[in-house]
Design goal:
- The chain has 490 residues and is an alpha/beta fold.
- It has two domains: 24-130, Immunoglobulin-like (Sandwich); 178-481, Alpha-Beta Barrel (TIM Barrel), CATH 3.20.20.80.
- Helix content is 24%, strand content 23%.
- The chain is built from twelve helices and 21 strands.
- The protein has helices at 13-18, 181-185, 222-231, 252-268, 289-302, 322-339, 350-353, 364-368, 389-398, 422-435, 458-461, 472-482; strands at residues 5-8, 22-23, 31-41, 44-53, 64-67, 73-78, 80-85, 88-93, 105-113, 120-123, 126-128, 189-191, 194-196, 206-209, 236-242, 272-278, 309-312, 345-347, 376-383, 404-410, 439-442.
- It has an eight-stranded parallel beta barrel. Strands 2-1-3-4-9-6 form a six-stranded mixed sheet. A five-stranded antiparallel sheet has the order 7-8-5-10-11, with no helix packed on it.
- The radius of gyration is 24 Å and the shape is elongated.
- The termini are far apart.
- Bound molecules: ligand IDC.
- The site of ligand IDC has 15 residues, from β19.
- Residues 245, 280, 315-316, 352, 381, 383, 408, 414-416, 442, 447, 449, 451 line the site of ligand IDC.
Length: 490
C-alpha cells in the first residue's frame, strides 16, 4: 500500500478565528490531500479538497474518504463523484480528473450542512489521523459571519442524495393566492438536475419573456400581466433587461426600479419572476462585470425575502470561452448569495446559450468544469426554425447531468423574425415537457417580428386577452402554456 500523508488546513474568515490547524506526520513522498474550509456560516460551510501527487510517477486515480460527526452532512459536491455510507463520504474522480501527473494536483469542493469538521479521513485507502478542528465556536456570533459579498458563502442545496424529509409546511405566505404557481410551489431550489418545489418535487415552469424593457415599456402593465397570469395561465415572467442598446447602462437606477416593479407585479399574480441581465452585444459578460455586480447586489437585496425570484446572470454569452463565463459566474453568484442565499441562479452558456453547440463545442466542457456554486442551473436557448435535431440531442444529453432551464426560445428564426416553424417548435416543447425543463418564450410583446406573441399595435390598444390579439406564435404558445400544470404537493 502506498504511504500517504494528509494535511488538514482550515482557513476562511470564521475558521481563522479558531486557528484550527492539524498536521499529521508525513512521509517524504506520497499523495496528499488538503481539506480547507473556504467559507463558513452559522449552519454550514463550504470546503475544498486538493489532492496532490507528490510522487515522481503518475497517479492513476484517487479516493478520499471523510467521516463527519452526527448532524453534519455533505449536501452538494462538485468536480467529484460522491457516495455516502452512514456518516462516511467517499469522493472519487468526476470522470476527467482521475489521473494526476507527478507533481500535479486536482481539486474538488463541497457544501456541508452542519458545523462539524471531519473526524476521520483516508486518502487512497490509507488511514490518516486528524486532529479535529473545533466546531467553529466563533460562527455562532453574527459578527463573525462574512459580510462582504465576495466572502459570503453559497447555501446548501438539495441533491439526489438528500436524505431529509421534504417539508410540507410552507415557510412563507403564498404569493398571489394559494392556487397560483408561487402559492403552490413556494421557494424553488435545484434538486439533482431538476427545478424542485417546496415539496422537493420536480416541476416545470412555462411562461413568457418580455422584449427589451427600453423599447416595449407600454406592453408591461396591470392588464397585460393579468392576461399572462389568468388568460395564459403562465407560471413565469422573464424580465429581459438589456444592458446595452439603450438599456441598463444608460440609467442604472431607473432600470433597476423597473425590474423591481415587474417582480412585484409578477408576485402579486403568483408568477415567478426571472430577472434577466440581458447581455448580448458585447458577448463577453466580463465586460459588464462591474455593472452586473452593482445590479445584482441591488435586486438581490431588495427582493431577498420574496419566494418568486430567479436570477439569470448573463443572457447569451458569445465570443467568449466557457472558462470566461465560469469566471464571471463565480464572481457574480456570491454577490447574489450574500443577500438572497436560497434563490436559484441561472448561468448562460457559450455560443448564445447553446451549451456551446453554435460555437462548434458542446456540454462536455461544462460538465468537465462546472461553476463552483450550489443551487444553480444552466441556460439553453433555441430558435425553432434555426436550431433542430443536433441542438435537441445536445440538450437532452446535457440534461442528464446538468440542471437546465430554457430561459429563452423562439418559434421562428434566430434573428427573431421569419415564419413560425410549427413542427420544430412542437418537437422542442414536447422534449421540454418530457424532460421537465422550464421555459420562457421570446416575446410577450407586439414587436413587428414573427417571434412576438401579439399583433402590432396591441399594447397601445390595451387589450391582451383572448386569441384575437395574438400572432401565430402567440396562439401556439398560449395554447401550450394554458394547459394544466403538474405541480405535486406531496
Ligand atoms: C432581438 C429582438 C429584436 C432586437 C434585437 C436587438 O427580437 O427586436 O432588435 O434583439 O439586439 C436572442 C437574444 C434576443 C434577440 C433574439 C432575436 O437573446 O435579444 O432579440 N435572440 O434575435 N438570441 C437569439 C435570438
Amino acid at each position: 500500500m502506498r504511504r500517504v500523508k494528509l494535511k488538514l488546513l482550515v482557513a476562511g474568515a470564521v475558521a481563522a478565528a479558531v486557528s484550527a490547524v492539524a498536521l499529521v506526520a508525513l512521509p517524504a513522498s506520497a499523495e496528499t490531500a488538503a481539506f480547507t474550509v473556504t467559507n463558513s456560516w452559522s449552519t454550514g460551510y463550504q470546503a475544498s479538497v486538493v489532492v496532490k501527487n507528490d510522487t515522481s510517477s503518475t497517479l492513476a486515480t484517487w479516493r478520499v474518504q471523510l467521516t463527519l460527526p452526527s448532524g453534519t452532512t455533505v449536501v452538494n459536491a462538485w468536480n467529484t463523484t460522491t457516495a455516502a455510507s452512514g456518516s462516511t463520504y467517499t469522493f472519487t474522480p468526476a470522470g476527467w480528473n482521475a489521473t494526476i501527473a507527478a507533481g500535479a494536483s486536482t481539486e474538488f469542493g463541497m457544501i456541508v450542512d452542519g458545523t462539524g469538521r471531519p473526524t476521520a479521513c483516508t486518502v487512497n485507502g490509507a488511514a490518516c489521523g486528524i486532529t479535529t478542528a473545533p466546531t467553529t465556536p466563533a460562527a455562532t456570533t453574527p459578527t463573525t459571519v462574512p459580510t462582504s459579498p465576495s466572502a459570503r458563502p453559497t447555501t446548501a442545496s438539495p441533491t439526489p442524495s438528500r436524505t431529509t424529509t421534504p417539508t410540507a409546511t410552507p415557510t412563507s405566505p403564498p404569493a398571489g393566492g394559494t392556487g397560483t404557481p408561487v402559492g403552490i410551489n413556494g421557494q424553488l431550489r435545484v434538486c439533482g438536475v431538476h427545478l424542485c418545489n417546496r415539496y422537493d418535487r420536480p416541476i416545470q415552469l412555462r411562461g413568457m419573456s418580455t422584449h427589451g424593457l427600453q423599447w416595449f415599456a407600454n406592453c408591461y402593465n396591470n392588464a397585460s400581466l393579468d392576461a399572462l397570469a389568468t388568460d395564459w395561465r403562465a407560471d413565469l415572467l422573464r424580465i429581459a433587461m438589456y444592458v446595452q442598446e439603450g438599456g441598463y447602462e444608460t440609467d442604472p437606477p431607473g432600470f433597476t426600479a423597473r425590474v423591481d416593479t415587474l417582480v412585484d407585479m409578477a408576485e402579486a399574480r403568483g408568477m415567478y419572476a426571472l430577472i434577466d441581465f440581458h447581455t448580448l452585444t458585447p458577448g463577453d459578460p466580463n465586460l459588464n462585470l462591474d455593472r452586473a455586480k452593482t445590479f445584482f447586489a441591488a435586486v438581490s437585496k431588495r427582493n431577498a425575502a420574496k419566494t418568486n425570484v430567479i436570477y439569470e446572470i448573463a443572457n447569451e454569452p458569445n465570443g467568449v470561452s466557457w472558462a470566461g463565463i465560469k469566471s464571471y459566474a463565480e464572481q457574480v453568484i456570491p454577490v447574489i448569495r450574500a443577500n438572497d442565499p436560497d434563490a436559484v441562479v441561472i448561468v448562460g452558456t457559450r455560443g448564445w446559450s447553446s451549451l456551446g453547440v453554435s460555437d462548434g463545442s458542446g456540454s462536455a466542457e461544462v460538465i468537465a468544469n462546472p461553476v463552483r456554486a450550489s443551487n444553480i442551473m444552466y441556460a439553453f436557448h433555441f430558435y425553432a426554425a434555426s436550431h433542430k435535431d443536433n441542438y435537441r440531442a445536445e440538450l437532452e444529453k446535457a440534461s442528464a447531468t446538468l440542471p437546465m432551464f430554457v430561459t429563452e426560445f423562439g418559434t421562428v428564426s434566430a434573428n427573431g423574425g421569419g415564419a413560425v416553424d410549427t413542427a420544430s417548435t412542437s418537437a422542442w416543447l414536447d422534449l421540454l415537457d418530457r424532460l421537465k425543463i422550464s421555459y420562457a418564450n421570446w416575446t410577450y410583446s407586439d414587436a413587428g417580428e414573427g417571434s412576438a406573441a401579439f399583433r402590432a399595435g396591441t399594447c397601445a390598444a390595451g387589450t391582451y386577452t383572448g386569441t384575437g390579439v395574438l400572432s401565430e406564435s402567440g396562439t401556439l404558445l398560449r395554447n401550450r402554456i394554458r394547459t394544466a400544470d403538474d405541480f405535486p404537493t406531496s
